[in-house]
Structures are given as C-alpha cells and as structure tokens.
Amino acid sequence: MISAVGLRKSFGEFEAVKGIDVEVRRGEAFGFLGPNGAGKSSTMRMIASVSPVTGGELRILGMDPTSDGPAIRSRIGVCPQEDTLDNELNVFDNLFIYGRYFGIDKATCRERAHELLEFAVLTDKAKAKVEELSGGMKRRLTIARSLINRPELLLLDEPTTGLDPQARHVLWDQLFRLKQAGVTLVITTHYMDEAEQLCDRLVVMDKGLIAAQGSPRELIQHYSTREVAELRFGVGEHESLVGKVEDLGERIEVLPDRLLVYADDGEAVLAQVHERGLQPVAALVRRSSLEDVFLRLTGRSLVD
Hints:
InterPro entries: AAA+_ATPase (IPR003593), ABC_transporter-like_ATP-bd (IPR003439), ABC_transporter-like_CS (IPR017871), ABC_transporter_ATP-binding (IPR050763), P-loop_NTPase (IPR027417). By secondary structure, this protein is α/β, with parallel strands linked by helices.
C-alpha cells in the first residue's frame, strides 16, 4: 500500500525527514510514533500526496504522488489532527457535500452519509449543527467524513488527542472495525497505549530518522525487559542509591522521584531490595510498555 525508500523532505535548509524506508502492507494498522519535530507530520503529508517529495522514492497504491496525486487522493481518506468540519452545515450535510467533492452522485452520497452516521453513532445528530457536538462526536464525524469515498487507505493524524478515555475507546472500537473490513490504517499518535492497542507494526521516529521498527511486542522485547520495578525513596536519595541496586536489573534509570529497575522478574527485584535493608517509601512492579521503549529511544527531554 505504501513503499518509501530513502524518503526525504526539506524546507529550505532544514531537513525534516532524512531518508527513511517504510513499507505498509494491505489490511494492517501501521503507526508512526515520535516526539514533536520527529518528522511524522511531514511524512504523513507526503503520503497524503499534498506535500511534494524532496528526495528518495515514494509509491502510494503503486502510484507516484508526483504524477498521480489526484488518482491517489481519490482512493485514500485523511483524518487530520485538527477538525476541519464546516460549522455552517449540519452533521448530515458535512458528509453529503464532502462526498460530492469526490464526484459521487447525490443518491449514493445520501446512502453513504446515512451509513456513516450509523457507523459513527451520530444518527440522532444528523440535523444538529457541528458546534452543538462534543469533542468526541466531532472526532467521530471527522473520521466518518474521511470514509465517504470508501478509501482503501486511511491516514489518521493524532485521532484521539484531547478526548476523554470513554471517547478514545469508542474510537478505538470503530478503527478496529474498519481494519476488520479491510481498510489499511496509518496512524500517528502520542499515546503509547493507543499504539499498542491499534498497531500491528510501527516505526519510532526521532530527528527525521527511524530509530526502531517492528510490532509493539517485538520492540518491547528488544529494547526493554519483561517487567519494571519502580522504587520511590526520599527526596534526593535516588542518585546515591543506584550503586546498591544496579546489579538487580539489566538497566537502571534514575528519575527525580524514583528509580526504575528493568528486569524480567520485578517481584524478585523488590524482594532483594528489602533483603538489602532498603525501605522504599513506595514500590510498584509493572510490565514493560511501549512507553518505556519510546523514552529509551527518544529521551525524556522536552522537544519544542
């Protein structure tokens, strides 16, 4: 569905994407993870065929976006990070009129609009103005609108940003249903649990390059341990205690408020900590997550 080899994107002297190789297979959910400025959005805009490629080779649905942009755009759907709904129109007309932009006849547009209202659980809001909708409803409508042309490939840029947990899970269910129906999904997200839940495979981007790629499980196995023991001691004590626990795990991370001990058996780590006479104020054993991988690869420093 997508093939990129040595893909680059520059804005003047600034190189946002520095030569990446990506392959997205039909019917899978593929994720792009990375901090701000990693090059995710620039890559997505090239895949959407709305931003020209600076260098390398890119094929979407077997076509070249440089020469086949309109043909590609007619077969894909795009759900942008910011809602771009038309506030002058009601919910139904946002779908109907958008469908007409694709040259779909009126009868088919009406039929698809009603189908998508049901899919988005918005049938009872068909005549409502967009401004009357909650944030979750607007996101569902935006995704529904991106499906009006029955795309083979759906691009979703931060699809659940700003939503409450209930709304996020409703959207996850809808995206899973789309994948089951054969739609290929390409997702950017800052939520690691979302990436673990939705993505079959993903890449972690940092500073315009791919730092790692694979399934969520493969990445956790390769870059982390099965479990993490979080140990909280008194303020300012963590740095001085590293030497007393560093042999208990494969890796130790010192944070201002806790020590993270990466090991395959977190409970065993905790037992040995107590055997050595150390008394953490609080302790927690959890499984390693994609967030541990993400922070190890991209760092904990804030990127603007």
